[in-house]
Amino acid sequence: MSATKSPQEDEQFDAQERDDLSKEERLRAYLAQKAADGEVYFKSKFIADEVDLSPKEIGALMVKLKDSATEVEIEKWSYTSATTWRVEPA
Fold this sequence. Notes:
By secondary structure, this protein is an alpha+beta fold. The protein has three helices and three strands.
């Protein structure tokens, strides 16, 4: 059995990686726009339709963005039936 990936597997991985990046960029832009005038608080399930992502996808991306976003500061604020996120301009 070979440990190398077929060209088709590489293409699928690349497509998934691009899709994840575009989702992250879309969420990052949305957060920057919403926080432009000051801090905002939200739960993923309430913005899911606006960013065309599932609440689960938003939650996973928020953890990534918390460490990598430079235009906004993200804080896990509280948890009551779902995580509330606090976002403010950097």
